[in-house]
C-alpha cells in the first residue's frame, strides 16, 4: 500500500512537470526517452514490459548482486521512475505491466528477507512475488477484484487466493484516495455511464410545497346539499372536511350523501390519509391511488392548507420530466 502511494506520487508529479513545460508536445516524449535510456544503462532490468522478470522471480532466479534484497528493491523503485517518465512525458506505453514488474521486484526483495530469516517456513519467494504484483497494481488502479482475477489466471493457481484477498484488501485501504487513474470516478454511482442505474425517481425529488395547491373544502356544519352541489359543479366525488378552526377532519363522499339530508359532519369519514408540505409527491400519488380519489389533503399542524389534485401532479411531473430530458 505504501509503495502504491509512492508510485502514484512519482507518476503524477512527473506527468505534471512535463505538462507545465513550455515546449512543443512532440519534444516531451523525446526528453522522457533520453532520461529512461540513461536509467536503462545503469539498470537494464527496467527495460521492456517486465513479464520475463516476473516469471524468473517466481522461480527464484535473482539478478547477480552482493546485496540482492537491496538491489531488487532499488530496481523496483527505478522502474517506477522509468515508467513514469515514459508515460508522463507523453510516450507510448501502458501502466499495468510496469506495475506488475515493480510489484514483483519489491515482493521478491521482501520475500528474500523473510526467506533468510525463516528458511524452513518460507522455502521459496514465489508467493511474495505474486502478491507483490497483485497489490502494486490492484491498489492504485482501484480495481482489486479485477486484478485478483488477472493474477489468478496468470499463475494458473488458486492456492494463494486467501493470502491475495487479505493483501489486496490491506493495500487498497492503505492507498486510500491515491490512484493511477485520476479521471476514475470514486464509485459506480458517480459514473455518467451508470448514472441511470442509480437515478432517483422524479416524483421522489419533488416536494409537495413545490406544487400549486387547489382550494377545496367543506365545513362540517354545512348542509349535505351544499356538499353535493360543490362536487357536481367541480366534478369531484369527495371533499375534504374541516371544522370551524380550519382543522382537517376527514372527507365526505358523494355516494354517502346522495339523496340524503343533514349536516356534513354526520357523513364524514375520519382517518383519511394526508400529506404535509415537506412530503414528496410520490407519497401524494400513493394516497390518491389508495383512496381512489382525485385529490389528497395537504395538512400542516392539523390545519388544511389546500389539496393537491391529479391534474396538479401531472402538470408538475411533466414539467420536471422536460427538464431532465433537456439536461
Q: How much helical structure, as a percent, in the residues?
A: 40-55%
Major β-sheet, in short? 4 strands, mixed
- State the CATH topology of the largest domain: Clc chloride channel
The multimeric state of the shown protein is single chain
Distance between the termini: 40 Å
CATH class of the largest domain: Mainly Alpha
Give me the side-by-side strand order of the main sheet. 1-2-3-4
Which stretches of 5+ consecutive residues score pLDDT under 50? none
Count of DSSP strands: 6
Work out the radius of gyration: 35 Å
| CATH-assigned homologous superfamily of the largest domain | Clc chloride channel
Proportion of residues in β-strands = 5-15%
If helices are DSSP runs of H or I spanning 4 or more residues, what is the number of helices? Answer: 13
**Arithmetic mean pLDDT:** 83
InterPro entries: CBS_dom, CBS_dom_sf, Cl-channel_core, ClC, ClC-type_chloride_channel
Membrane topology: Multi-pass membrane protein
Subcellular location: Membrane
Main location: membrane
Structural description of this entry:
This protein is α+β, with helices and mostly antiparallel strands and 327 residues long. The chain is built from 13 helices and six strands. The protein has two domains: 2-189, Clc chloride channel, CATH 1.10.3080.10; 204-326, CBS-domain (Roll). It has helices at 2-20, 28-42, 51-58, 68-88, 96-117, 126-138, 144-155, 161-175, 202-205, 224-234, 254-257, 281-291, 310-326, and strands spanning 218-219, 238-242, 248-253, 269-270, 295-300, 303-309. Strand 2 (238-242) and strand 3 form a beta hairpin. Helix 2 (28-42) packs antiparallel against helix 4 (68-88) and helix 5 (96-117) runs antiparallel to helix 6. It is elongated. The protein starts with a helix and ends with a helix. The mean pLDDT is 83. Keywords: CBS domain, Chloride, Chloride channel, Ion channel, Ion transport, Membrane, Transmembrane, Transmembrane helix, Transport. InterPro entries: CBS_dom (IPR000644), CBS_dom_sf (IPR046342), Cl-channel_core (IPR014743), ClC (IPR001807), ClC-type_chloride_channel (IPR050368). It is found in: Membrane. Pfam families: CBS, Voltage_CLC.
Amino acid at each position: 500500500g505504501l509503495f502504491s502511494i509512492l508510485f502514484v506520487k512519482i507518476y503524477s508529479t512527473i506527468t505534471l512537470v512535463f505538462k507545465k513545460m513550455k515546449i512543443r508536445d512532440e519534444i516531451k516524449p523525446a526528453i522522457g526517452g533520453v532520461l529512461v535510456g540513461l536509467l536503462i544503462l545503469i539498470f537494464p532490468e527496467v527495460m521492456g514490459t517486465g513479464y520475463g522478470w516476473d516469471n524468473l522471480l517466481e522461480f527464484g532466479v535473482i539478478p547477480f548482486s552482493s546485496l540482492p534484497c537491496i538491489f531488487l528493491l532499488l530496481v523496483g523503485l527505478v522502474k517506477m521512475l522509468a515508467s513514469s517518465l515514459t508515460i508522463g512525458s507523453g510516450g507510448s506505453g501502458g501502466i499495468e505491466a510496469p506495475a506488475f514488474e515493480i510489484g514483483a521486484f519489491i515482493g521478491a526483495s521482501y520475500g528474500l528477507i523473510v526467506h533468510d530469516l525463516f528458511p524452513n517456513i518460507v522455502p521459496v519467494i514465489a508467493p511474495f512475488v505474486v502478491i507483490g504484483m497483485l497489490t502494486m497494481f490492484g491498489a492504485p488502479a482501484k480495481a482489486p477484484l479485477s486484478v485478483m482475477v488477472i493474477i489468478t489466471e496468470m499463475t494458473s493457481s488458486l492456492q494463494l487466493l486467501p493470502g491475495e484477498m487479505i493483501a489486496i484488501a490491506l493495500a487498497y485501504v492503505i492507498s486510500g484516495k491515491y490512484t493511477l487513474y485520476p479521471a476514475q470516478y470514486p464509485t459506480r454511482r458517480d459514473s455518467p455511464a451508470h448514472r441511470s442505474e442509480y437515478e432517483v425517481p422524479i416524483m421522489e425529488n419533488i416536494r409537495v410545497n413545490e406544487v400549486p395547491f387547489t382550494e377545496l373544502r367543506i365545513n362540517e356544519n354545512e348542509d349535505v346539499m351544499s356538499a353535493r352541489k360543490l362536487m357536481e359543479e367541480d366534478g369531484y366525488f369527495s371533499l375534504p372536511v374541516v371544522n370551524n378552526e380550519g382543522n382537517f377532519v376527514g372527507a365526505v363522499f358523494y355516494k354517502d350523501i346522495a339523496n340524503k339530508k343533514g349536516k356534513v359532519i354526520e357523513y364524514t369519514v375520519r382517518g383519511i390519509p394526508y400529506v404535509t408540505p415537506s412530503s414528496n409527491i410520490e407519497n401524494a400519488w400513493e394516497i390518491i391511488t389508495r383512496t381512489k380519489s382525485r385529490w389528497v389533503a395537504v395538512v400542516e399542524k392539523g390545519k388544511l392548507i389546500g389539496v393537491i389534485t391529479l391534474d396538479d401532479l401531472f402538470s408538475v411531473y411533466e414539467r420536471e420530466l422536460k427538464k431532465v430530458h433537456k439536461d
